[in-house]
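Tutorial handout. Part one gives the primary structure; part two gives the three-dimensional structure as tokens.
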Amino acid sequence: MLTPGHLSIVQWLSPAFPTGAFAYSHGLEAEIASGAVHDAPSLEVWLANILRFGAGWQDAVLLAHALKGGAGALDDLARALQPCAERLQESAEQGAALARTVSAITGRALPPRMLPVALGEAAGVAAVPAADVVALYLQSFAGNLATIAIRHVPLGQTEGQGVLARLAPLIHRLAGQAAVAPLDALGGCALAGDMAALRHETQTVRIFRT
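Part two.
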């Protein structure tokens, strides 16, 4: 059932919320520049790998645990898991912006955290099932990156939305798994995505911050 808590989380993850998500490409800008992502099928493969084996899965597990408490220790862990400076910057800056804005509109004192931990701490009082919160987070994450590809591959909007539609079953499945996963399930092997983020740090022409 849709609840006010669901609507709050949708608002916090929407493009209108001032986290500046549009400024971060998660290394996708480097992949587009190299030609590795050049059309809808290559974007779909790249996004699916990031969701299953990279930051998507790791953030999903961290978020699910942050909903239950222990945000301080989880924030330290989230920082330690970042593979490079830009990934740390991306999650830390968006998380701080989310915590700051949620604090301002709710009156709750929320400290700056890494993005999945910040969301988990903010949403922990919303009484929304963990799988729902994680699914909304992963959908927002994938949607932001698809928007970047729509503009800069470029892809048509219909092609980009088609990629997101085809990823929906994967997002739903990962959310359900992450909602009950132990912290021992953390880990990733999206090496190509990590290398793209590292290349982006020294890329000569850059539109996005990461």
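Part three, for discussion. The domain at 23-201 is CATH 1.10.4190.10 (Urease accessory protein UreF). Residues 130-152 form the longest helix (23 residues).
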